[in-house]
Structure formats: C-alpha cells, structure tokens
Amino acid sequence: MKRNKDHKTNGHDHGNSRHVVQVEFSHPAATAVGIAGTFNDWIPGATPMVPAGEGRWLKELVLAPGIYEYLLVADGEWLADPHAEATVPNPFGGVNSVITVPADQNDQNGNSKAKRRRQG
Hints:
Number of strands: 9
Mean pLDDT: 80
Shape: globular
Largest sheet: 5 strands, antiparallel
Low-confidence stretches: 1-14, 107-120
Oligomer: single chain
CATH architecture: Sandwich
CATH topology: Immunoglobulin-like
Order of helices and strands: EEEEEEEEE
CATH superfamily: Immunoglobulins
Strand content: over 45%
C-alpha cells in the first residue's frame, strides 16, 4: 500500500482527513479480485480491484486515519496479504492483514511513509 500525495478532507482540518491508499495484488490465475475489510463491512464485491495486465490487480482506497483489517478475495478465495505490515488472528482460525493509516503519512519532504503491499 502507498498513500498518494493528494488527500481529501471534509472541508475542515480537524483530524478528519482521508488518504488515498493504493493496493497492488499479483495473482496470475485470478479472474476477479476484491478487497474485504473493516472499511467496507467485509463485502468483497463492494471494493473490486481493477485488472492491470499480467496478473496484476490495482485499487485505490480512500481511508480516514485509523487501523483497518482486511483480506484479499481472489475468485472467492480469502487470502491474507503476505506483505501486510501486520496480521491479527481472526475468528475463523486464520489471520487478517492490517492497514494502518497514520494521521500524518508524510515525512518532512512530503514523501509517503505508507508501504506498498503485494501478493506474490
């Protein structure tokens, strides 16, 4: 995941800013990929990824600062992101991946501190 330089706010800068986070996933055999997590009520169809060719899938999420759990769903198979910054156990005996969107994601030079995630 990475945050783009641009971010959206609700018009007030009271900690309610929303950041664009880019998700990249690689699964050469997948015909449909979605992202399910705490940011979309765990509904993979609510956040479909866009095919980018050669088995790559992309999606931009607009998220407020916070900690979110998620899984990638490729052709109905729920997969943890092996490049997630962290994982937490889920009630199904597996793990959920974690996205952390800090309140300030840029260093002094305006460079993003967020990490890009990839499924190999």
